[in-house]
Structure formats: structure tokens, C-alpha cells
Amino acid sequence: MNPPLSRRDVLRRLGFVAGMWWAARAEARDIPGDSVYQLRAQLTDQDGRSFELSSLRGQAVLVSMFYSSCEQVCPMIFETIRLTLLALPVADRERVRVMMISFDPARDSVAVLKATAEAHQCDARWALLRAEDAEVRRIAAVLGVQYRRLASGEFNHSSAIELLDTEGRIAARTGTLGAADPGFVKAVRKALSRQA
Amino acid sequence: MALEIVRRATRIVVCAAAACGTAMAADFITVPGGRFASVLPQGPVPTVSVPVEVAAFAMRATPVTAGEFLAFVRAHPEWQRGRAPAIFADRRYLVDWRSPVLLADGGAADRPVINVSWFAARAYCESERARLPTWLEWEYTAAADETRRDARADPQWRRRILSWYERPATTSPPRVGGAPNVFGVSDLHGVVWEWVDDFNALFIAGDSRVQGDPDTAKFCGAGALSVIDRDSYAVLMRIALLSSLSAADTTGSLGFRCVRPGGERP
Amino acid sequence: MNVARSAGILDAHATRIGLAAMLCAPLLSFGAQPAAGDFGPPRGAPIHAVLTSPPNVPPPVARNRPAKVIVTLEVVEKEMPISEGVTYTFWTFGGTVPGSFIRVRQGDTVEFHLKNHPDNKMPHNIDLHGVTGPGGGAASSFTAPGHESQFTFKALNEGIYVYHCATAPVGMHVANGMYGLMLVEPPRGLPKVDHEYYVMQGDFYTTGKYREKGAQPFDMEKAIDERPTYVLFNGAEGALTGDKAMKAKVNETVRLFVGNGGPNLVSSFHVIGAIFDKVRFEGGTNFQTNVQTTLIPAGGAAIAEFRTRVPGSYVLVDHSIFRAFNKGALAILKVDGEPDKAIYSGKELDSVYLGDRAGANLNAVTRATASSAAGTLSLDDQVHAGQALFAGTCSVCHQGNGAGLPGVFPPLAKSDFLGADTRRAIGVVLHGLSGKVTVNGQEYHSVMPPMTQLNDDEVANILTYVLNSWGNPGGRISIDEVKQQRAAPTAPAKASEH
Ligand SMILES: [Cu+2]
């Protein structure tokens, strides 16, 4: 049981929270209402840097969720994204960013993310990200991903790859794994054509 | 034994952050932990029910009311209807209110808030230093009746739940504060559906249709979950509702309540 | 996510196979050949499908090209009558049970919108048996209350197909009325007929007994045990009888689209007094001719056609006949027009047929009637007439020698119950008898139905015969005594009250 807070404590906390919120609002003001970037989540990338989802605003982004110790589907997600990028014209390929968000902050430390990135030959376009459990649930909710942790430490999860347009709106989603989905590739090219 | 539990259930009164200093305050009831067999498999094998240990927590005695939620959106205008971003709340968010800061009618304040999204429910709970319950916590508390911690084997318990399912939600939900169960928690059945924090973990294979689906790629790992106890269809229907939702969705019979971690160790 | 859902770019719910299960998904087509019903991409402007409530069927498609057809179906949970004075909370596709009839052409691309009304409590989806693809659309159409989902399919196979909700618990959603029919017309349409009707059978499970008044809740136990309270055509007793009977004239062609939603029972579908000229059994392409009764599986349908010849009321039944007369599976097609005596004469003779029980022939009865009218009725007349009538009416149970069957039918021979109060026996015959009764030391606990078919003369004569046979005390029951008892307002005799 938490010790009851004093009234001053509460007010102080409240003031702090509200202050953060308004600061964030000012920045978020012109982010569209249906943009994933409305979510102000605290993430860390494979190099240990703190990461804001909206930092990728203005670019076409592929997003998916995974966990490093996954042996079945997750490697295929990496592979599918790689194939999707390869299916784009060379010039386009370099302009796409990739966000991979881990379900498993307990085991996916920065070092593990780094190793996973290397294992899948992820270059600078890729961000492998971790966040606290509650934050992961929220990110999954925004992306429409379902997952649950099993007693074994494994995860059950739906596996889809999403395309965010330059404003962070979900523009397309594919459930195809193991090959580039032509419809999805087309959607990526369309998003890139809108990119300044 | 039943009385014993009630006596132990200490009431912790927490000041709802949104309404601190006002008369508004929520009752959080300590729910002692225990062993519990969920209708959803919790163990490693998706077809065998393994009882699991549920840790103690403190749960709101009643669902969050429209009046409480009104105080919240007054204190947090970004959660008012029309201001909450579309990605967090669909177009039916608080649609039954007269305005973004006015309830439907005078008597609505002590009815459960409805037409709220998961994001909004979560933000509310955070505002009172709480969180949404997990499915397991909710199911564990809701398995009780007035005298027993686990009344699920009683057909009467099931029938009471089903009688609510049978009525379409054309009228507004009843006022909160029905008869408390053995833990001291009210209104878990017969009032509203309630959000749980891990609603998007409830992807189960339907009652009979996809048992042993070889297509494990759809859900990485073990494939979809199975519901173990076919008799628990009353509970299964709640899972069906939750699994049909996206986090921004709202419906006219869906509300929520909050929990706080911890609670007394028996 | 609403973004994805409304934009329709992708199958947002594909990942959500969760509860949307796959029981009835048609098998995927074999081989690499394009399916026979694929006539290429849709042509022309999209068309909004006309949906109809049962028993009506939308007009023929009458189109020679594949089109994009938009179907919008709304799920509504609502309380409706299931029988006289009995209501039930149905879950419906389009506000009716069965749900709205959908009619498209083979090769059409169907853009399907499923709306779940905001006042509903339950999530729902739809599995269309006419869809080729996993779950028949179930996964893609899983919809929360106050939401809408969309998916698109090509109607590759022609035929009549059931659709139903497939949300868990599936059986309950189906038992609450969530089924209907979709007709996929062959490219050149179906032959023209004068009338098309939409009839669908379903079994229903209520906690109360058949016709128990009031709002009746669903009974899961009965449903699992497959013990229906009601078996109905079009979701209510009387949905297709009286004013609501289907209609035709003589010498017209009638096509019935008959489905069976189940959830449990298989239907032995029969029209009393008609022979189907042609049945597309199981909804398939082959047909059978000259069919009396066709079997319709749960989750299946058939097309039955016949020509009306003779006017009258034709009763549609499930020929598992207790369902028709004790659970409600009855509907009527009323055919008007001139009788054709060459085909059916109507009643030419109405006489009593007593079979080999007639024995002592009916002259005695005739004689008693005549002497009664003349006021000269003797004891002998009554006993003789009574003997003939007893053989035809009472001996089935009480046996020809009045000995009854031990433990089942009490004896009338030397019955102390009868002897104690001979007048009471009039009431027993007129109103029947139920409950505990002790006859000659043995207890019976059964039911004797009222013999309502007997007139006052006949009752008096039978009882007089009984009193004067098998060592009974003798005596006479007069017609007036029977008249008086009949006039007295009495409930059926309760044996235990005596
Ligand atoms: Cu349904």
C-alpha cells in the first residue's frame, strides 16, 4: 500500500504533470488528431539515446513490434521489411525509416537491441526501441497490435507491418510475411511521393 | 470465512487528483491475493488451465461515474469531447453528454461513465494515481458473489450475468452502488462492460472453431488462446466484447474502473 | 483503428481472428484454374443491393455483367414476440429473424458493410457461406457495438447460401436468430416464377415452457442438450399464418427459398398437400424432381418449386411432426381460385370408421338415437348402443373387457371408484381425469383426456353400458344428467380432490 500523500505533495505533482502536458501540447499542436505521433512515449534506441516517435515526422516510416528472443515470426518481420525496402527504387529506399518496438523491455536491454540490430544488419535507417511496459501497451494500442506475455517469457502477438505517412498517420498495413507485399510497396511509394 | 474477508477488506480513501479538495473521492477496496483459475489459460500450455497466483491489489468499489469523469475533463480539457485526438477517442466519445462539460441530464452524475475509450480510461486512472485492472484482476474479483470468492460453478451466478446481456443497452446504465460482493466491490456484473488494461491481449480462438489452428504464424508462438471452461460462456461473452474493440473505440455500455497496486497481505 | 478500418485500405481485423472463428468457411477452390464464377472485374457504377425482410425476396438481378454491389446490413438486438404473449430478445441481421435476404449475381464483387447498432451490447460478425475465404468473412467483420466494418468478396459460386453470426459463443448468437439467406443467381438468372418466398427454420431455447407467457430468457442448458422449446419458421409462432400467410393463386408457380439456421436441428421440410416439382436440394446445382419431403441441414438451404393446382391452405411443416404441432414449426401458403374437381374432389363422404373394433355394428347406436327422439329409449337400447361406442372410444385404454391395464389404465370392471359415485363418472368422461386415483387398492397417477368428441346421448349410453357390464352394480345414466354436468362449469376432474 502506498503511504497517503500529503495535500501539498499532490498539488506539487499535479502542477508538474500539468506543466509537462502544456509544454507538450504546444509542440503537438499541429500534429493531426489521427496521427500516431499524438502519443508522447518515452523510448530508448539501440544506441541508448532517448527517442521521440514524432522525431520521424516528415518521413515515411515502417513500424512493427517484436522481441529479440523470438525465434519464429520476428526474424521474418525483419526479413520482410528488408525485402520491402529492396522492392523500392534505390533512391526511395534510403528515404524510408524503420521503427521496431520491443514487447519485452525486461529482456531487451539497450545492449540486446544493439546485438539484434547487428544480427539483422540494420543500418542507420532502423531504430530498435524499448519502453516501459505500460508504454509498450499504449504503443501497441495505437498501432492496433495485440500481444500477451506467456508464463514461459515468450509472447503471443499479432504480426503486421504498418506504414506511417509523413504526418504519422497509419496509411497502410500488411500481414504478408516472407515476401514484399506489392500493394504495400505501392503505398510506401505513394507516401514517399508526398514527402518534401 | 466470507465474513472474515469482508472484515479484512480495509477501505482506503484516495483523493481523486482531478477533484482534490472537493467532496469527490474514490473508495478503493483491498482485494486480497489468491490462487485463481482463469477461463483463459495462463500457463504454458494453451489448453490446460493452471491456477495462478493473483497478487493483492486495491480496486475501486464502483465503476467511475459520469460525475467523476466530468470533474476529470474539467481539470484536463484535452480529454474533452471534440478536443481528444481521434487516435485516442472515436467519434462517439462521450456522445451521450449534452456538451463537452455537461452531462446528459441531472440524474446522470452517479451512473457509470460510458462511451469512453481505453486511452481516456487510462488517462483518468493515471489522474488518480491508479491504473486499469488487468483482465486477470478483473475476472478474479468478478468471480465472487455476496458470500463466496468463487461462485462461478453456481448456475445462479451465471444466470444473473446473462440476464443483463439480454437487455439491449437502450436505456442508460443504473446508478452505481449495487450490492457489494464478498470483497466489498460492487457493480462488476449487470451494469456496464469495463475496460481492462490488457484488453488487446485477449485474442482467443473462438469456442470451438479454431482449436489447434496450425497457423501459428498469425500469432507468433503458441497460436491463439483457447477458452478452457466451456461453461464459462457468460465470462466468454465479456472477453468477446473486449476483443472486438480497438483502443480508441467507445460504446454505449462500456465504462471502466481503476485499481491501485499492492494492498494488504493477508 | 478507425483510420485503417474506414479507409478500407487493409484488413484491420485480419489480425483479429480471435473470436471470429471459422466453422463454416467454404473450402478454398482447388487448383490454379480461375474459378468458374469469376467473370472479371466489376463493370458500371456500384449498385446498392435491395434487401428484403422475410418472407419477401428481392426482385431478380436482371443484369448481364458483373457489378460491384454494396450490401449494408445492420445488427439490431431487440425484444420481439416469439409466440402469443411471449417475448424474446432476438439478435438480428436487419431487425428480423431470419435476417434480410441478400440477392446478387454470380461474379459480382460484393462490398459488405456490417453495422453494429450503438444500442447493442454484443460484438457480432458475419460468416457468409457464399464467401470463398477463411471464416466466410467472420474475422474481417468482427464489430463492436456502435461500429461498422467493411470487407469485399467475389461471389464465385451460384446457389442459395446461409449466412450467420460467428461470434463466441457461436451457438448462442445463432440461437438468438442471427442467420439469413443470400442468393447468388446464375449469370442468366433463375427461371421466371409467379411467386418467390423466403422461409427459414430455427430452433429456440427459453427457460420457460412452450408458450409460457412473458419475456423469456435464453436457456443455454437446453441449447446444449438440444431440447428446443420452439421450432419456428421465420422466428415467431404465427409469423406465416392467418393474415400473414403467404399467398398464391391456382395455376401459379411458387419458388420457396428455404433455409435452416439451426443451431441444432435438421429440418424435414414438407408442404402438406403439395409435391415439389423440383428441389435444388442442399442449395446445390443438381435438382431432384417430384419430392415430398426434403432434408435441410442446419446451416443449409434448398430451393423448392411447385405449381399450385387446387385452392386451399397448404401447411408448411417440419415433418418431424411434434415440432410442427407442439413447438410451432408451422406456416401456411394460402392458394385462392376455382377448385378443380378432376384433380382433387374435396370431401365426398364423412362417416365413422371403426375398423375391426366395430364388432357389434352401429345399428344399435342408430336405434338408440331414434328411440331417444321418440321418447321410448329403453335400458336395453342404451346398453347396446353403449357397447358399440365403448368399443370405439374407451376400449383402447380400458380394454374390451373393462379390465384395464394394471398400473397404467384403471379397470372399469368392478371398479370401487366407479361404484362409489356413478354420477362422478359423467364428469370423468366429459372433462377427463388427472392426478392420483386409487382403484381397487391400486394407485394410478396418469391422465385421461376429456372425451370431447362424444355428445350427451353417447356419454349416457356408454356409461349405462359400463354400469351394466362385468359385474358392476347396474343403474342408468340419463341424457339429462349428462346435459346438466356439461353445463356446469367444471375444471377437469382432479382425482386427488375426491
Ligand atoms: Cu452475433
List the helices and strands and how they pair.
The complex is a heterotrimer of chains A (196), B (266) and C (498).
Chain A: H1 7-28, E1 43-44, E2 50-51, E3 60-66, H2 74-86, H3 90-93, E4 96-102, H4 110-119, E5 126-129, H5 133-143, E6 147-149, E7 155-158, E8 161-164, E9 170-174, H6 182-193
Parallel strand pairs in A: 3-4, 4-5
Antiparallel strand pairs in A: 1-2, 3-8, 6-7, 8-9
Chain B: H1 2-8, E1 11-14, E2 26-31, E3 34-36, E4 52-54, E5 57-60, H2 66-75, H3 118-127, H4 135-142, H5 155-166, E6 193-194, E7 219-220, H6 233-243, E8 254-255, E9 259-261
Parallel strand pairs in B: 6-8
Antiparallel strand pairs in B: 1-2, 2-5, 3-4, 5-9
Chain C: H1 2-7, E1 47-48, E2 68-83, E3 86-93, E4 102-105, E5 109-116, E6 127-128, E7 147-154, E8 159-164, H2 170-175, E9 179-185, E10 195-204, E11 214-215, H3 220-225, E12 230-233, E13 246-249, E14 253-262, E15 267-272, E16 276-280, E17 288-291, E18 293-296, E19 300-307, E20 312-318, H4 322-326, E21 330-336, H5 363-374, H6 379-393, H7 395-398, H8 416-420, H9 424-431, E22 433-439, E23 442-448, H10 456-467, H11 479-487, E24 493-494
Parallel strand pairs in C: 1-2, 2-5, 3-11, 4-9, 10-14, 13-21, 22-24
Antiparallel strand pairs in C: 2-3, 5-7, 6-8, 8-9, 10-12, 14-19, 15-18, 15-20, 16-17, 16-19, 20-21, 22-23
Bound molecules: copper (II) ion.
Copper (II) ion is lined by residues 91, 122, 124, 165, 167, 173, 178 of chain C.
Key phrases:
A: 196 residues; Glutaredoxin; two-stranded antiparallel sheet; 6 helices; 9 strands; globular; disordered N terminus; B: 266 residues; alpha+beta; four-stranded antiparallel sheet; binds copper (II) ion
Quick recap:
Chain A has helices at residues 7-28, 74-86, 90-93, 110-119, 133-143, 182-193, and strands at 43-44, 50-51, 60-66, 96-102, 126-129, 147-149, 155-158, 161-164, 170-174. With 196 residues, chain A is an alpha/beta fold.
